[in-house]
């Protein structure tokens, strides 16, 4: 499959500008959503520390998966089929990485607030919130990454130009929603 051929800065900018505008609007939605949880963040400082790290880590997991899928796509090694071992293996690796990283993120967030004397939630609660939100976010990051990579493939766009911006921005917004969903489940 050939991709759009104008590789100049102007050509890439022309193709990506509408996408970047839409992603900017999506980020505004995420910020407004985060603002709606100000009272919860003020009440539980550990969660305030957890917000940027959780969002960033989810975006990073999606970006790593995106880069791996994009490379496999360019090498002609990726088939967008449920039986594709490369696709499945990378998705499973992303989920396993989330299961190992997010508890550490939660423990770190709790340790920071404990060190500053502002920890109001027990460590196990903060770790549980981080783990639950991390697992859900990693599943969503995998879905968003695969769907976006497949969409880029179908539209003959370069996944290197499209997938990482989409994944990181969507994971920012999903990160806020999922984190506070996990807070409601775990903390109440």
From TrEMBL:
Topology versus the membrane: Multi-pass membrane protein
Recorded hits in InterPro entries, A to Z, give:
SLC41_membr_dom, SLC41_membr_dom_sf, SLC41A1-3
Gene Ontology CC terms, in alphabetical order: membrane
Cite the SUPFAM superfamilies for this sequence.
Answer: MgtE membrane domain-like
- SLC41A/MgtE integral membrane domain location: 51-181
Q: Which UniProt keywords apply?
A: Ion transport, Magnesium, Membrane, Transmembrane, Transmembrane helix, Transport
Query: Where does it live in the cell?
Result: Membrane
Question: What Gene Ontology terms describe what this protein does at the molecular function level?
Answer: monoatomic cation transmembrane transporter activity
Query: What highest taxon heads this organism's lineage?
Result: Archaea
Which residue ranges traverse the bilayer? 16-34, 46-67, 87-114, 126-150, 162-187
Similarity-based family = Belongs to the SLC41A transporter family.
What is the recorded name of this protein? Divalent cation transporter/divalent cation transporter subunit II, MgtE family protein
């Amino acid at each position: 499959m050939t991709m759009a051929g104008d590789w100049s800065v102007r050509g890439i900018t022309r193709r990506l500008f509408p996408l970047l505008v839409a992603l900017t609007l999506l980020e505004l939605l995420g910020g407004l959503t985060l603002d709606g949880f100000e009272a919860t963040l003020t009440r539980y400082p550990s969660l305030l520390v957890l917000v940027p790290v959780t969002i960033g880590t989810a975006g990073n997991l999606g970006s790593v998966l995106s880069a791996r899928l994009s490379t496999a796509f360019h090498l002609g090694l990726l088939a967008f089929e449920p039986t594709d071992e490369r696709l499945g293996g990378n998705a499973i690796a992303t989920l396993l990485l989330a299961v190992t990283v997010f508890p550490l993120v939660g423990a770190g967030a709790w340790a920071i607030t404990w060190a500053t004397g502002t920890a109001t939630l027990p460590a196990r609660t903060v770790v549980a919130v981080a783990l639950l939100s991390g697992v859900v976010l990693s599943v969503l990051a995998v879905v968003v990454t695969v769907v976006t990579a497949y969409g880029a493939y179908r539209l003959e766009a370069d996944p290197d130009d499209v997938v990482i911006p989409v994944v990181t921005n969507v994971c920012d917004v999903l990160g806020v929603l999922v984190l506070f969903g996990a807070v409601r489940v775990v903390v109440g």
